[in-house]
Design a protein that fits this description.
It contains five helices and 15 strands. It is of the alpha+beta class and 299 residues long. It folds into two domains: 71 residues, Ribosomal Protein S8, Chain: A, domain 1; 183 residues, no CATH class. The strands form three sheets. The protein has a six-stranded antiparallel sheet with strand order 6-7-14-15-5-8. Strands 9, 10, 11, 12 and 13 form a five-stranded antiparallel sheet that branches. The chain has a four-stranded antiparallel sheet with strand order 1-2-4-3. 23% of the residues are buried.
């Protein structure tokens, strides 16, 4: 511990220098936390290579900063998120039979009684382990842009309606964020997206000058005043993934830990997104996508 007098601090409140180790928080956030507890003359220096902060202030302010950082610098809770993506089919007589709470983006939170009346044609289960507040990624399937309605939907998000669009591999999925609220509640954010692979051809060209320096066999012929040039071209192909967020179908809701909730894509952009995933069926009018989600603690 080093004692000194900072500008503006009296001799009775001599400054000290201390180091604080940061275990979990981003270093910038930890620095802001510590700074909030120091005096106006207090100094915070970040040491990224050691994940440490060096602070300089009087003993009382250093004590406060140390206590607050200890309270906040803890590991974030780990959560298990189980997501079932289901394709539902209904008959002409029963219709969808969907009722429940409307959510943003065209989603409906279905009542639990719906589960007993309907069966799933196809189900894919995804298990995510995420840190509270972080996102997990789900690849739900592939879009085959066969129907004009699906082509128009993709065109809204910048995908050109080319004749070979049905052959372009387009992956669709969701980003799921689960944020723990209190002891037994979770705030869920669901963000649909699709990705496509794009190929680009880049041509690198080099100009090579071929000077005519004359000939020792014909000394009377001087070098040519103009030199010919040769263009060397090397085409190179590159591939990259273009990600497009379907922000109009974003939704969010609050659930209890361990509770299973069912969401149906039955309106607005969510329905169009679901129909795009179902485009490989001959008849999609009576089909729709369900999401079944359950969040539990991982630790």
């Amino acid at each position: 511990m080093i004692a000194m007098v900072l500008p503006g601090i009296s001799d009775t409140a001599r400054a000290e220098t201390a180091t604080l180790e940061v275990l979990h928080l981003p270093l910038q956030e930890a620095s802001a936390v510590v700074k909030s507890q120091l005096s106006r003359q207090g100094v915070v220096v970040q040491i990224p290579s050691r994940r440490m902060l060096m602070i300089q202030d009087n003993a009382e302010h250093i004590k406060r900063a140390r206590a607050l950082l200890k309270r906040l610098d803890i590991s974030a809770p780990q959560l298990n998120v189980q997501v079932d993506v289901e394709e539902q089919q209904t008959s002409e007589q029963t219709g969808t039979g969907i009722s429940g709470m409307m959510l943003p983006g065209g989603w409906v939170r279905i009542r639990a009684s719906y589960e007993a009346r309907q069966g799933s044609d196809h189900q894919r289960r995804f298990l995510l382990r995420v840190t509270s507040g972080k996102y997990g990624r789900i690849e739900a399937g592939h879009i085959r842009a066969i129907r004009p309605s699906v082509r128009r939907f993709l065109h809204r998000y910048g995908v050109a309606d080319a004749p070979d669009l049905a052959l372009v591999p387009i992956t669709a999925g969701f980003d799921v964020q689960a944020r723990l609220i209190g002891k037994d509640s979770v705030r869920l954010h669901i963000h649909p997206w699709f990705e496509r692979e794009r190929q680009e051809t880049n041509i690198q060209a080099d100009i090579e000058i071929l000077p005519n320096l004359g000939s020792t066999a014909a000394t009377k012929r001087p070098p040519a005043p103009q030199a010919p040039m040769r263009l060397n071209m090397q085409p190179q192909q590159s591939r990259h993934i273009e990600r497009i967020a379907v922000t109009d179908a974003d939704t969010e809701l609050t659930v209890r830990l361990g509770e299973t909730v069912i969401l149906a894509a039955t309106g607005q952009t969510a329905k169009a997104f679901g129909n795009a995933l179902l485009d490989h069926y001959v008849i999609v009018a009576k089909r729709f996508i369900l999401l079944r989600l359950t969040v539990t603690r991982a630790n």
